[in-house]
Specification:
alpha+beta; four-stranded mixed β-sheet; Glutaredoxin; about 40% helix; 4 strands; globular
Length: about 120
């Protein structure tokens, strides 16, 4: 599995600590050091069955200038472009599972579900 992270994020640090304690096999990818492409964001959205505004951090997306875009399919590409240009606005951690799904793992319950606990 791959985990999209931002190391200064407390939710990310907590999730990584759980993965380490459970000896999970994962690769951490810093969204700031290796920003995702539009295609990768699109893949994550497909895996999550979500829209780009669903994975956007509200304050960061507003500060970056795209958070007030309409939450409508006509604005989808603009939202994705905003997330690509400002990866700090992406919710994290996002875990891309080997089965082709993904989860935004911001709480222990989400981690338990993917780890089968």
């Amino acid at each position: 599995m791959q985990v999209w992270v931002t190391t200064e994020c407390s939710k990310t640090r907590a999730a990584l600590a759980v993965l380490e304690r459970r000896d999970a096999d994962y690769e951490a990818r810093s969204c700031l050091d290796q920003p995702p492409t539009a295609e990768e964001v699109g893949d994550v959205l497909r895996r999550l069955d979500a829209e780009p505004w669903d994975i956007a951090r509200e304050r960061e997306s507003r500060e970056a200038g795209f958070g007030d875009l309409p939450r409508h399919p006509d604005s989808r590409d603009e939202w994705i472009a905003g997330l690509v240009a400002h990866p700090r606005a992406i919710q994290r951690p996002i875990i891309l599972l080997d089965d082709g799904t993904a989860v935004v793992a911001r709480d222990a319950d989400a981690l338990d579900r993917i780890l089968g606990v």
